[in-house]
Amino acid sequence: MDTDPGIVCFQHCSLGKMFCLGLPDSCPFCGALLATAHFTLLPFRVPYPFVRAAQHPCSIVIRPSTGDFLNDYPSCKDLHIAVTSANGQVVEFDSAGLQHGRTDMWQQCLVVKGASRPWTEHWDRTLQEVSSQDCWTKQR
Predict the structure, then answer these.
(1) Which intervals hold domain MKRN2 opposite strand protein-like N-terminal (predicted)?
(2) Is 30 in the same domain as 72?
(3) Do 41 and 87 fall into the same domain?
(4) CA pair distance 57, 8, nearest whole angstrom
């Protein structure tokens, strides 16, 4: 499943750089037709920053609490944070308490690298110890 929509960056006029999902026919800032326009910054495809959490073991992952980053995330809204186990299982805390394995909700997230390969066993052991504490119930 490829979730990369193809984010394009370019600059045509002095009004600023434009990021969009594909090259439009005209400049969104000044309205000039781009087929014959001079570009200050030629269009290029931006590397896709989002990942599937399950493909990044022993990491910290971040996503919007509702929706996704590209379609409906204003920067003033909350983010949801989780960690992944050595096999990519997502462990998160929400209003229902500690949750394990809801990877389908983590298809478009940002990853903060966690433990490197020599530390994966320790990572999982610590994650298991912390997860088993009763402070992670929904009543807390």
Answers:
(1) 5-32
(2) no
(3) no
(4) 29
Q: Using CA atoms, how far apart are residues 66 and 78, in angstroms rounded to an integer? A: 8
User: How far is C-alpha 66 from the geometric centre of its chain's CA atoms?
Assistant: 12
Task: For the chain, 140 residues long, give each residue's pLDDT as a single digit of tens.
Answer: 556 778 899 998 999 999 998 899 999 999 999 999 999 999 999 998 899 999 999 999 999 988 888 888 888 888 999 999 999 999 998 888 888 888 889 999 999 987 888 888 999 999 999 988 888 777 65
Q: Give the range of the structural domain holding residue 84, as residue numbers without chain letter.
A: 53-132
Q: How far is CA 18 from CA 4, 21, 23, 75, 117, in A?
A: 18, 10, 10, 18, 39
